[in-house]
Amino acid sequence: MSEEGGGEGLWPRVGDAEVVRAAFEEMPLLLMSTEGPQHTFVAANAAYREFVGKPAFIGVPIREAMPELAGQQVVEMFDRVYAAGEPQTSREWRVQVDRDGAIDELFADFTCVPRRAADGTVIGLLAFATDVTDRVRERQAAQVRVSDAEQRYRDARDVVTALQEALLPTALPVLPGVRIAAHYLVAMQDQVAGGDWFDAIPRGDGSVVLVVGDVVGHGLAASAAMGQLRAVLADALATDSDPLVALTRADAFAARTPLLRATTLALVVLDPVTGTLRYASCGQPPPLIVGAEGATRFLTGTGTGPLGTGSTPGFADDTLHPGELVLLYSDGLIERPNRSLEAGMTELATVAADAGANRALPVRAAASSAERVCQLTVELLTRTGYADDVTVLAAHRLPTPVRSLDLQAPTTAGGLRQLRRDFDGWLDALDPAESDRVALELAVWEAVANAFDHAYPPGHPGPVRLRASLGASGVVECRVSDRGQWRKPDSAATHRGRGLLLAEQLIDALEVHHPPHTDASDGTVVVLRHGLHRPAVLGPGTEAHAAPIPRPEFAVDVQHSDGHPRLRIRGPVDVVTAEAFARALSGTSRGGVLPLTVDLTEVTHLASAGVQVLHRMRDQLAAQRQNLRLLAPSGSPAHAVLNLVRLAHVGSDADVGDD
Questions:
Q1: Reported CATH class of domain 10-136
Q2: Which residue, of 73, 221, 284, 614, has the fewest CB within 10 Å?
Q3: Nearest-5° Cα angle at 27, 25 to 31
Q4: Which CATH number is associated with domain 405-538?
Q5: Mean local confidence (pLDDT), 413-442
């Protein structure tokens, strides 16, 4: 037979056409091919069609066949491979595809290579991939089961993460007029922390200073030098009213320190009230402004060279309008082999615009604009690798600053429940780190419980007022007041009077004022102050900040196993629910006759009233030679309180020993 007939020539090398076609169709790899600069599909096997959920798209350009890919950098990657004629490979590429109107999030390892004509001209693309969605989901599920500390240390060497913890801020201030987020990745090639750093520093005049800098080099020496410069600059910014003076001091320090010479830096001073923006760009790419609808513009460079090189620092002025965002970044985000910085900046602007307008990967994108832009610029622009540390810092000027809170309710169960709901809603808008939120909630409700218990005679409820405001420095001040008369605690009540002492240990400052030192309209006033923060993302995580945890109502589930009763408690255990909590414990243990296990894992707030119930139950069981077992995993609100009041507990059933 001839080669055209599939005989002596072509057939032994390629195989029968029908066999090849069947093998292509049945291949477990995802296989597809396109033609032309519009990437028109010309072939796709069954595995690929199932992956994208679109059985009939041959002959259709990819932008028409899969419009949901816009903003996900997939089509842009195809464009680059077609234009440059160079293959591209990536692992665990996250993509969202439209399957019959429902968006599915999938992950794939893939390689895309150019197809060439006989003369070498690129005429299309070939792509082969492996669906690794199950592998990624399994790893994500495993990460959920480990503690935050274990997750933080999972993928990087101990020395790298220790340096990150020591030299970079792990938390960012929560401010009333601006939302701040940051993301930092260690250089991919050597996984040794380098000289990148970021800072967000509130100032006494209400402004906030944003800094992203990069000390030349990697390793311990560069990290140590970075820590020195960061400390010098932060101290100068805190003590001098003029940022130019502070920057000049940092420049002089860099000139005297060889390891700090040629440090690049971008510094922005933002007034969240007026939107006034002063900035300096010392050898660093200029900050990017991102509008709410996705419009972008780079700030004009200030013409200043790197620190310590003899270039005189200078500032320029601009305005950040309500709803706009300013993004500072290190050059590691935009540097790629064989690509100019200008091309990298153009790609950054495109990705940031899509992220700001919530057009890119919207299903699991972070809730706030600042977190979304930080998360997605890092994730999408580092998919094909990155050679240097990557740092981004974003500040979103809120269209409406967070307002102060002024609530009043009667000291009844219903009134205090409504007070709690309203205060929870206000904290939801602030969205602080969970540890700060738990501490502030506990302290505030101990102050409210103080008024509930002591301000008014039994059976005669009166008003309690809660005022809360977030200051320009990121400190919340709460004032809880009543119109009753102060009564000294009963010395015979050994389990009473611990609430405010407990609260004082959890927050930054607590003051109690009694008449006549307060306004005539107030009785006892408890003033609480606590700085709020959000976590910065240090490492490869894609979730910048988790959504607020749901706040369930109080509930009790009772279980019995081999004569050992068990209670699972959900929601708040406070002055409103303490009586029901006590009845549940006493009834389930038959008045202290049966040993009792109390699972506090889902308790959102364990107040001193609940602690008092637990102390009494422990003593009641001990009198009957029975045990009270308390379960409260590390990181839970109950765990923190039980540690403070020295009530023994364990993290899980696996930690409970035999009686």
A1: alpha beta
A2: 221
A3: 75
A4: 3.30.565.10
A5: 90
